[in-house]
Design goal:
By secondary structure, the protein is an alpha/beta fold. The protein has 16 helices and 22 strands.
C-alpha cells in the first residue's frame, strides 16, 4: 500500500477537488506534451506532467554552454505562415527567424544558392554544376512518380532512383557530378533521418509542406516551450514505467515507485520509446495500436556543434563535402551567417549517424572536424564542441518518424487514435506534419481537446450547445478538425 504521504504527493487532485475538477496526467514534456498540458490546464483541468529528463523540451534542446543558444535538436520552423500553429506564438514573443529556404527548394529546407560544396581534395565544386545537378535531382524525383504509378507494390526511394537512371541514361552523372548527386541524396536522407534504401517510395512525399519557407530559430526553441510551460505542474526526473487503464480512470507508475491517478492520460513520448516497450500497458494495447508502433519508422539525425574562436569559412549558409556515396557525404550548417556565432554544425543522418553514436563525444567531434579539414585545410581547431545522441538516448531512441517500405499509410492515424481514456500525441501521430515541431504541437492540442471532451462527457458536464462559446482554453490557437482517414 502507498503511504499517506506518497498518496498525497502522487494524486494530481486532492480529495476535495476530486468531485469537482476533472484530471489528467500527461506523459512526456516535449512540445506535444507541453501543448496538451497547457490546453488542459487552461480548461481548468487538474494536470500533472511527468517528464523522464531533468529538463523539458524533449527533442527540442537549446544548449547555452557556449555562452549563446545552440539548438541541438529541432531548430527550424517549417512553414513561416499564419497556417503554422506555432507562428502566432513565435511572433508574439518577438523571436527572429533566419530564412534558409523557400517553398519549392529541392532540398526541402534549403535553397540551392546558399551552398558551397567541395570535393574530397578541397576543391570547390562550381556553382553552375551544383545548380545543374540539383535540377537533375529534381527531375529524377519527378520520374519516380512514374515508377510508383507502374508498381502496385512499394519499394524504396533508392530502388526507384536506380530504375529511373537505368531508363534515362541522360540523367546519369559521372565524376564530380555523380558525387554531387549523391550529396543531394544525402540531404534527402537527412530530411527523413533515414537511408534511402528504407524510405517508402509510395508515401515519401505524403507530408504537407506549409507555405512561407523555412525559418531557423535564431534564439533557439527554448523561449517558446518555456512560455508554454509557465504555471504547469511539471515533475522532472519522473520516468514512467507503467500505465494502467481502469474503469474509474488511469494509474501511472513511475520508476522511483511513486504512482499517479487521474481521469485520463495523454501519452506524448517519442515513437522510439514506445517501440522499446519500456512503458508497460495494462491491459495491453490493442493489436492494431501495437502494429502501428512497430511498423512506423524512426530515424536518426544528430548534430555535432563545433565552436571556433574565429570564422575561417565562406560566408554561405551550408558547407558540403561530396563523395561517391551518400554515406560518405558531409553537411555543415553555418550558424555564423544566421546568428553571428562562430559555430559550424555537422549533421549526419541514418546509418552514418548511428555509426558516429558509437564513438565517444571527443572522437565524434574530431570526426566532424576531419570532414571539415578535407575542404578547408587551414581550419583551426574548435575551442569547444557539443554532440547529440538522439538514437541512443533512452529518452528518445531516435530523432523523428518516417514511412518505411511496404507498410500501411494509416500508421500515423492509428498511433493517434485513443484507447479508452488514454490519448496519444507527438510528431509520430501527425499524418500531415510528421517530424516537425508544429506537427507535435498540433497533436498535443488535438489530444487535449479529445481528452477534455471525453472526460467532461463522463462527468456529465459536456454542454455541446455552449461548447463553441467556451472561452476557457486561452491557448487554443486553432485546434485542427478531427478527421479520421480510417
Amino acid at each position: 500500500m502507498e503511504s499517506r504521504e506518497q498518496s498525497n504527493r502522487s494524486n494530481p487532485r486532492s480529495s476535495a477537488e476530486s468531485l469537482s475538477r476533472p484530471s489528467a496526467i500527461v506523459i512526456g514534456g516535449g512540445f506535444a506534451g507541453i501543448a496538451a498540458a497547457r490546453a488542459l490546464h487552461d480548461a481548468s483541468f487538474q494536470v500533472v506532467l511527468l517528464e523522464s529528463r531533468d529538463r523539458i523540451g524533449g527533442r527540442v534542446c537549446t544548449d547555452y554552454s557556449f555562452g549563446f543558444p545552440v539548438d541541438m535538436g529541432a531548430s527550424w520552423l517549417h512553414g513561416v505562415c499564419e497556417e503554422n500553429p506555432l507562428a502566432p506564438l513565435v511572433g508574439r514573443l518577438g523571436l527572429p527567424l533566419y530564412r534558409t529556404g523557400g517553398d519549392n527548394s529541392v532540398l526541402y529546407d534549403h535553397d540551392l544558392e546558399s551552398y558551397a560544396l567541395f570535393d574530397a581534395d578541397g576543391n570547390q565544386v562550381p556553382q553552375k554544376l551544383v545548380t545543374e545537378v540539383g535540377k537533375t535531382f529534381g527531375t529524377i524525383l519527378k520520374e519516380t512518380d512514374k515508377v510508383r504509378e507502374e508498381n502496385s507494390e512499394d519499394m524504396s526511394i533508392l530502388k526507384a532512383f536506380s530504375i529511373v537512371l537505368e531508363r534515362r541514361p541522360d540523367l546519369r552523372q559521372q565524376g564530380t557530378a555523380h558525387n554531387v548527386l549523391q550529396w543531394y541524396l544525402c540531404r534527402m536522407e537527412g530530411w527523413f533521418a533515414a537511408d534511402a534504401d528504407s524510405i517508402s517510395l509510395k508515401y515519401w512525399d505524403e507530408e504537407e509542406l506549409l507555405s512561407g519557407g523555412h525559418g531557423l530559430m535564431v534564439r533557439g526553441y527554448y523561449p517558446v516551450i518555456n512560455t508554454l510551460a509557465k504555471g504547469l505542474d511539471i515533475r522532472l526526473n519522473s520516468r514512467v514505467t507503467g500505465i494502467s487503464r481502469r474503469h474509474s480512470g488511469v494509474k501511472i507508475s513511475v520508476e522511483d515507485g511513486s504512482t499517479f491517478t487521474a481521469d485520463a492520460a495523454i501519452v506524448a513520448v517519442p515513437l522510439g520509446v514506445l517501440k522499446s516497450k519500456k512503458i508497460s500497458f495494462e491491459p495491453k494495447l490493442p493489436q492494431w495500436k501495437e502494429k502501428a508502433i512497430s511498423e512506423l519508422g524512426i530515424g536518426t539525425e544528430n548534430k555535432i556543434a563545433l565552436h571556433f574562436d574565429k570564422v575561417f569559412w565562406p560566408n554561405v549558409e551550408f558547407l558540403g563535402v561530396v563523395a561517391s556515396s551518400s554515406y560518405g557525404c558531409s553537411y555543415f550548417l553555418n550558424l555564423h551567417k544566421a546568428t553571428s556565432y562562430p559555430v559550424l554544425v555537422y549533421m549526419p543522418a541514418g546509418r552514418l549517424a548511428q555509426d558516429i553514436e558509437k564513438m565517444s563525444d571527443k572522437d565524434a567531434a574530431n570526426f566532424a572536424y576531419m570532414q571539415l579539414k578535407k575542404i578547408l585545410p587551414d581550419a583551426s581547431e574548435p575551442i569547444n564542441y557539443l554532440v547529440s545522441h538522439w538514437g541512443t538516448d533512452i529518452n528518445s531512441l531516435g530523432s523523428y518518424s518516417y514511412h518505411t517500405v511496404g507498410k500501411s499509410n494509416d500508421l500515423y492515424e492509428r498511433l493517434r487514435i485513443p484507447v479508452d481514456n488514454i490519448f496519444f500525441a507527438g510528431e509520430a501521430t501527425s499524418m500531415n506534419y510528421p517530424g516537425t515541431v508544429h506537427g507535435a504541437f498540433s497533436t498535443g492540442t488535438i489530444a487535449a481537446e479529445e481528452c477534455r471532451m471525453r472526460v467532461l462527457e463522463r462527468y456529465g458536464e459536456l454542454d455541446l450547445h455552449n461548447l463553441a462559446m467556451d472561452g476557457e482554453m486561452s491557448t487554443s490557437l486553432a485546434v485542427p478538425l478531427l478527421i479520421s482517414r480510417m
